[in-house]
């Protein structure tokens, strides 16, 4: 059985749009590159043709990966779940770094959408994994390269 891929509604839409673009526009562009490269003659010494075929293989691999993600997508119900008693995939979590007293806020999302620089961490990351199932005011411990980090959950929404 394939692994579930948690996606927000926004993330699902983005992946669907990306797949559509790759299947239509990108495929046409690669096909055109191959057609042009074929016009250069001898394929045994045709670097443009080799590159175009490599581009085609990479594109088809990306399309297959996206199709797999969408086939195994589990939509995170961000609006319908008003139970903010514990952290789950889709939760926005505000927490305090107990070493620095710095406050951080992230949304817990699936691996596919993880983007820490934009406030989204994976449910499979060390911090995300430690937060799942925890409640407000609980302290979680996360093993980091610098040692054990402690975070206190201050808000779940």
UniProtKB/TrEMBL annotation:
Keyword RNA-binding in record: no
GO process terms (BP): DNA-templated transcription elongation; regulation of DNA-templated transcription elongation
Coiled-coil ranges per UniProt: 49-76
Tagged with keyword Coiled coil: yes
Pfam assignment, any one: GreA_GreB
Domain Transcription elongation factor GreA/GreB N-terminal residues, every copy: 6-74
PROSITE patterns reported for this sequence: GREAB_1
Swiss-Prot/TrEMBL keywords: Coiled coil, DNA-binding, Elongation factor, Protein biosynthesis, Transcription, Transcription regulation
GO molecular function, one term: translation elongation factor activity
Tree of life domain: Bacteria
Occurrences of domain Transcription elongation factor GreA/GreB C-terminal (ranges): 84-157
Gene3D superfamilies noted in UniProt: Transcription elongation factor, GreA/GreB, C-terminal domain, Transcription elongation factor, GreA/GreB, N-terminal domain
Family: Belongs to the GreA/GreB family.
Function: Necessary for efficient RNA polymerase transcription elongation past template-encoded arresting sites. The arresting sites in DNA have the property of trapping a certain fraction of elongating RNA polymerases that pass through, resulting in locked ternary complexes. Cleavage of the nascent transcript by cleavage factors such as GreA or GreB allows the resumption of elongation from the new 3'terminus. GreA releases sequences of 2 to 3 nucleotides.
The protein, known as: Transcription elongation factor GreA
Organism, as annotated: Fenollaria massiliensis
Protein encoded by which gene: greA
